[in-house]
Specification:
about 350 residues, alpha/beta, Udp-n-acetylmuramoylalanyl-d-glutamate--2,6- Diaminopimelate Ligase, Chain: A, domain 1, UDP N-Acetylglucosamine Acyltransferase, domain 1, 2 domains, 5 helices
């Protein structure tokens, strides 16, 4: 679609979202705003009736089908949350100029860099590395030997890609991430720790997002793998030889120990963890601050430490809150047992004459 003076017509927005237009098709939209900050020049995406009713009628909105009366203005769609993500892409600013290699970048003669790639200031691209079309490397990115970065992937500043790492198409690697570093492997001999060489690799699928300061280890022998479509938050650690499936969500500060298996469509909430060699089944949810110490079957929600069925954990927490009361009742029963079954007015057992 064509831009109009740095804005979009409402009819263009409706067409882009495949929605039903209500109101003035020529209304100009300058951007997207929250319900608290929206004005007549900005569009607001809503999926809750209560928030919708609070907006004045002249504010353009994106809402579910059937919400807009003829005197309102906006676009009706089937899935407002999906429309919200698409709508933001209309107003997203270009990340960086392309088709340029900055003069301060150091690129090995044996590396292959596609002419459409952008290589930013002070990047290092080592021997045998391959940079595909439309790849963006922001400032201070290190690309090790024989690394492969597939088309459309964006690597933010200060990312380190160790030797042999393979990145799929249209990935987004945020600042400070470390991919393919050596796994934490040691054995003990004569009371000393001996390092185990990590000679495997790291393979990351298509459309994976890796958060800032996240670290993913290379394998000891085989490859650590991250499946396509998986999204990883900030400060996450994935250990050597771990296998993470497709379309998973690993929220900030999650820890995946070595050789753990995370099947497809798993959600690991913030500060959760998985023990080495444990398996989390497809479609499972691990609640925040939970620790998985044994295999979790598919489709299960677990919480607590050690992680167990979420409903069971809620019962345990509820009972834990009653421990002082239960303890007092136990003491009372013990005193009754020691006496003759009678109590004085203060609740203490009285002895028989």
């Amino acid at each position: 679609m064509k831009k109009f003076d740095d804005a979009w017509r409402l009819s263009q927005v409706a067409s882009f979202l495949c929605g039903r237009l209500v109101g003035d098709p020529d209304r100009l939209i300058l951007g997207v705003a929250s319900p608290e900050e929206v004005t007549q020049e900005y569009i607001c995406v809503l999926w809750e009736k209560s928030a919708f009713r609070k907006l004045v009628k002249d504010v353009p909105v994106v809402v579910p089908l059937g919400w807009l009366e003829p005197d309102r203005i906006g676009v009706e769609v089937e899935e407002p949350k999906i429309a919200f993500a698409k709508l933001l892409s209309l107003f997203e600013r270009p990340r960086t100029p392309k088709c340029e290699v900055h003069p301060t970048a150091m690129i090995s003669q044996s590396a292959e860099v596609h002419p459409s790639a952008y290589i930013g200031p002070f990047c290092v691209v080592r021997e045998g590395a391959k940079i595909a079309n439309d790849v963006v490397l922001e400032a201070h990115v290190f690309v090790g030997k024989d690394v492969f970065i597939d088309e459309g992937t964006i690597v933010e500043p200060h990312v380190t890609l160790y030797h042999g790492v393979k990145l799929g198409k249209r990935c987004l690697i945020h600042a400070g991430a470390s991919l393919g570093c050596e796994g934490f492997g040691f054995c003990s001999r004569d009371g000393k720790l001996v390092k185990i060489p990590q000679v495997g690799g790291l393979v990351i699928g298509d459309e994976v997002e890796v958060g800032a300061l996240t670290s993913i280890d290379r394998g000891t022998l085989g490859d650590t793998r991250i499946g396509s479509g998986t999204k990883i938050g900030d400060c996450v650690h994935v250990g050597h030889n771990a296998q993470v499936g497709s379309n998973c969500i690993l929220v900030a500060m999650t820890g995946i120990a070595g050789s753990a298996v995370i099947e497809d469509n798993v959600i690991m909430a913030a500060q959760s963890g998985v023990k080495d060699h444990a398996r989390v089944g497809k479609g499972s949810i691990v609640a925040a601050k939970s620790g998985v110490t044994k295999d979790i079957p598919p489709g299960m929600m677990v919480s607590g430490f050690p992680a167990r069925d979420h409903r069971e954990e809620l019962k345990i927490q509820a009972l834990t809150q009653r421990l002082p009361e239960i303890y007092e009742r136990l003491l009372r029963l013990e005193r009754l047992h020691e006496g003759v079954g009678n109590e004085d007015e203060k609740g203490n057992p009285s002895k028989a004459d």
